[in-house]
Specification:
Layout (H helix, E strand, L loop, with lengths): L5 H13 L11 H13 L3 E5 L2 H11 L7 E5 L4 H9 L3 E5 L9 H6 L5 E4 L11 H11 L2 E5 L7 E2 L2 E2 L6 E5 L12 E5 L2 H11 L28 H32 L4 E2 L12 E5 L3 H9 L20 H4 L30 H8 L1 E5 L6 H15 L2
Parallel strand pairs: 2-3, 2-4, 4-5, 5-8
Antiparallel strand pairs: 1-9, 6-7, 8-9, 10-11, 11-12
Helix pairs in contact: 1-8, 2-8, 3-4, 3-7, 8-12
């Protein structure tokens, strides 16, 4: 969370006083406003507000027709929810290496394509844009669907296009640790009408036909799904957060650029596929070895983090995936389904060595959008001192 205050409180007050807390209502319609703002600000034809980024990912996969018998390529460096969403749709996650940008390596992703591959999920982790030109070209050549995981990249872009709107669908997260927050929350964006209709039904199949006119103009027949419906309280907060988004990103990017300009030639930065589109949340430095990275991260005042230490963002810590426990009931477990019997990988802790090496040689330093020049200069001096050790 970066900025929150009186405006969010006032919007929550309006909702509570209106006594319309349910998503479908004839009053303030905060959720509907959020969906409209998301479409307009990010540039997509359709949008659905949901309860989480995972909800958006699994709803998108189901809507894209992914299921048993399908493989979905995911990067070995992403939060476990990305891989779990694939399993949640009944498919099998196939892990691909990351490259120097710490995002999915298109070259390795190409090697992982088989006749069973249905989709690829590029993850814009830490707000770092993936190389969407290469991903989209790869997908086009092999007839793959592209689901962008923009859960850590709200508002980011690649060559002028907002992340999450380039592929077949995009998933976003608004939990406490994201650029925008409503405590918890997520959204799905797509330009594909069929994907929108299927996701709309799947994300709230118990209520979509019961409340309001949500199925008007929907041609897809109803089917059983889940319940990822949001509410007006979360939407009220997110409505204000969306108004803050461009300002937050502008200040994050400006502060990151200020630091990079003054550290140029002093250190090595993790390269970017689009530095202007990068969300600016993280100053990422490269080192020659893990030992050097750890010395720097532990230096006084740095407060640095090696991405290799970020727990469930690194594939070898995805316990239920690595141990192939896809569901409590064995008949519901994709790793045990007959349709998947020939495509279940042999997951091992060393299966993506390039990913482990690159994550162990990088250090993240958080960027604060509210730092003034004096605070930034102090951080820069601290970094220079640590690099000199």
């Amino acid at each position: 969370m970066y900025r929150i205050g009186r405006e969010e409180i006032e919007e929550l007050k309006r909702v509570i006083e209106a006594k319309d807390l349910f998503k479908i209502n004839g009053g303030l319609q905060e959720s509907k406003q959020v969906e409209t703002k998301l479409r307009e600000k990010l540039g997509a034809a359709h949008g659905i507000l949901m309860t989480s980024g995972y909800a958006a990912l699994v709803s998108a996969l189901v809507a894209l027709g992914v299921g048993p018998g399908d493989e979905v390529i995911v990067p070995a460096y992403t939060y476990i929810a990305t891989a779990m969403a694939v399993v949640g749709a009944g498919a099998i996650p196939v892990l691909a290496e990351i490259d120097d940008t710490l995002t999915i390596d298109p070259t390795d992703a190409k090697k992982k394509i088989t006749p069973h591959t249905k989709a690829i999920i590029p993850v814009h982790i830490q707000g770092f844009p993936c190389d969407m030109d290469r991903i989209m070209a790869l997908a086009a050549r092999h007839g793959l669907l592209v689901l962008e995981d923009a859960c850590q990249a709200d508002g980011g872009s690649f060559k002028g296009r907002r992340l999450g709107t380039i592929g077949s669908a995009g998933a976003f997260s608004f939990n406490f640790f994201k650029i925008l927050t409503s405590g918890e929350g997520g959204a799905l964006l797509t330009n594909d009408r069929q994907v929108f209709e299927r996701a709309l039904i799947y994300h709230d199949s118990s209520a979509i036909a019961y409340f309001g006119d949500q199925l008007s103009n929907i041609e897809t027949e109803e089917f059983c799904g889940s319940e990822f419906r949001s509410n007006e309280l979360c939407a009220a907060v997110l409505n204000i957060q969306l108004e803050r988004m461009d300002g937050i990103l502008t200040d994050l990017r400006a502060n990151k650029k200020y630091m990079m300009d003054r550290l140029d030639g002093v250190c090595r930065f993790v390269p970017s596929n689009d530095l202007q589109g990068d969300c600016g949340t993280t100053l990422a430095l490269q080192f020659e070895s893990e030992a050097a990275a750890r010395r720097f991260a532990a230096a006084k005042g740095i407060n640095g983090v090696l991405p290799i230490d970020t727990g469930k963002h690194v594939y070898r810590h995805w316990t239920p995936i690595m141990k192939k426990r896809g569901a409590l009931h064995p008949l519901m477990d994709p790793f045990k389904m007959e349709a998947n019997k020939d495509i279940v990988p042999d997951y091992t802790e060393d299966m993506c060595p390039q990913t482990l090496e690159k994550l162990a040689k990088a250090v993240y330093i958080n960027v604060d959008p509210d730092d003034d020049k004096a605070a930034l200069d102090r951080k820069i001096e601290t970094i220079k001192n640590a690099l000199a050790l």
